[in-house]
Amino acid sequence: MRRPILAGNWKMHMTIAEATEFVRTIRRGLNEIKSVDRVLCPPATDLAPVKDLLAATDIGLGAQNMHWEEKGAYTGELSPRMVQELCQYVILGHSERRAYFGETDANVNRKVKAALAHDLTPIICVGETEQQHDTGQTELVVGSQVRDCLSGLSAYEVTQLVIAYEPIWAIGTGKAATPAGAGSVIGLNIRGTITQLYDEDTAQAVRVQYGGSVKPGNIAEFMTHPDIDGALVGGASLKPDFVDLVRIAAETSGQ
């Protein structure tokens, strides 16, 4: 049985002072929920102080991006060695990285390999735009992203990562996909592609989250779908009731 995983992507929010105050507010509540994995993904400047605040807990910490090279002349980037010192997870290929910073599947693939080589768990984001969704291209787009991002990985390596299905048209819009719709894409296009590349056992071992306008009021619906193993949460992870969201997810999943 796959263990659910709930990750909060803070994006470009919270100064160090704001982050430390917020973590102190939610830390105890999150730490009491032991049946699912909980991960906080703050901006890079917040990683060190948040790591210190989480030291006595089993709450995970993740970076929002990283480079694939260990070191070098890459101004403004974080290497896997730098991330490894602070984190257990790293988000890779988020749609905002793809849209605003030219991130490609080939680059995501290089980052995934670097993350795994440094004992980091990648959270790989895939998803289609509204236009692609409306014109029936979801299967082609998502399947291609999964195929390219996993290129060259062994079956074992694939079972060590997390995939987040984030339909771009649902991110930050308040317009979440339906659990049935998201579950169908995950089951057919994500697990289906992994089955084609590897086998059914590998596909069933991979944890796949849903992301896109997730909140306490709708998380239970997503967690009841057998192919959805948690959520990558954006705006709702910046509020104290993120603890309620995680608790509801844990209770609904039966963990």
Low-confidence stretches: none
Rg calc: 17 Å
Order of helix and strand elements from N to C terminus: EHEHEHEHHEHHHEHHEHEH
Q: Number of helix segments? A: 12
> Beta-sheet strand percentage?
5-15%
Number of domains: 1
CATH topology: TIM Barrel
The largest sheet has its strands arranged as: 7-6-5-4-3-2-1-8
What would you note in describing this structure?
The protein has 255 residues and is of the alpha/beta class. The protein has one domain: TIM Barrel (Alpha-Beta Barrel). 45% of the residues lie in helices and 14% in strands. The protein has twelve helices and eight strands. Strands 7-6-5-4-3-2-1-8 form an eight-stranded parallel beta sheet. Strand 2, helix 2 and strand 3 form a beta-alpha-beta unit. Helix 7 packs across helix 9.
Question: What keyword list fits this structure?
Answer:
255 residues; alpha/beta; TIM Barrel; eight-stranded parallel beta sheet; 12 helices; 8 strands; 45% helix; 14% strand; globular
